[in-house]
Give the backbone structure.
Amino acid sequence: MTARLVVDLTAFIADLRRVRGVVAPARHMLVVKDDAYGHGLERIVRAAAGEHVGWYGAFDMHTAVRVRELAGPSARIVAWTVYDDADVDAALDADIDLGLGTRPLILAVAARARARRTTARVHLKIDTGLHRNGIRPEEWQEAVDLALSAQRDGALAVTGVWSHIAEASDDEDDRSRRLFLAAVDALGAHRPLRHLAASAAAFARPEFRFDMVRIGAYAYGIRPAGGPGDAELGLTPIATLVATVTGVADDAVTVDVGFAHGMDSRLAGVLEVGTPAGTRRLTAVHATTATVDAWPGAAVGDDVALFGGAAPHSATDVAERLGTIGEHVLLRVSPRLPRAYIGAGD
Ligand SMILES: *Cc1c(COP(=O)(O)O)cnc(C)c1O
């Protein structure tokens, strides 16, 4: 074998069940952007579909359309980045819900749906402070009126109202929540699905759950850096970065993962890794290889867990040493490194 990212699908399913149990009766939209946070979209969506996950959140249309192929016709899929009419057409063809955060987009999607004599399902996004592609509160009522008028003529179905929050401070999130509630009120008698929280707020703050939560990180067992631990959350990291031994010297073992594969060179001399003989220190990180303190009987072909699984540290533990978040550690694992799957559905 050679280096690979091993994804434990049994652990993924356990995390999914945990997430759904915590947030119920709110629904869980499984966020699968960035190739399911580096875990590999295809196997993750197939495993989730086996668990009857009803909603998927995709950043871009390409991912959303792929999820449609993988999850089948009954899945609900929301894409929240729409660039042009080709994206709108792709969404209408594949029955994808659109997250819309500007008035021009609302108009453009309604026009496209009218031209095709169909209805586009849309989720209107209010900017509650993060300033990432959402309708500003002062423009919200006008946007809502536009969308509801397009709903009356059948071009749009206003299916959701949503926002994304920082989840960095309770005060800031509370302010966002108040803006969100006012935005929902602006829809009057029309009551679409409300979704506001991602992983952290969905677990920690029940009043943020509303009808649905959009959770990526926790579903993959990625805990927040500096936040509650895996045991407290009831979650297990599902990915292990495994390197294999390619050379053995007296005091050092060489493995086939380096910074070109996403291993941060600042971890040299700092990170403890999992070897067949127990924990050893990572001593150097080169372009395509790294070295680890030797152990008795080390042999070419042995597996070394760099993070996750049998390693003493998870992706978030590594992230904390680097001053970043677990998602970034996983997303830095080169897409060219194969993903291997173990556990349920394998
Ligand atoms: C990535 C993302 C999420 C999921 O966030 P996690 O913290 O990974 O659960 C939710 N909503 C939006 C809009 C996102 O981009």
Q: What stands out?
A: DSSP finds twelve helices and 16 strands in the chain. The longest strand covers residues 239-248.
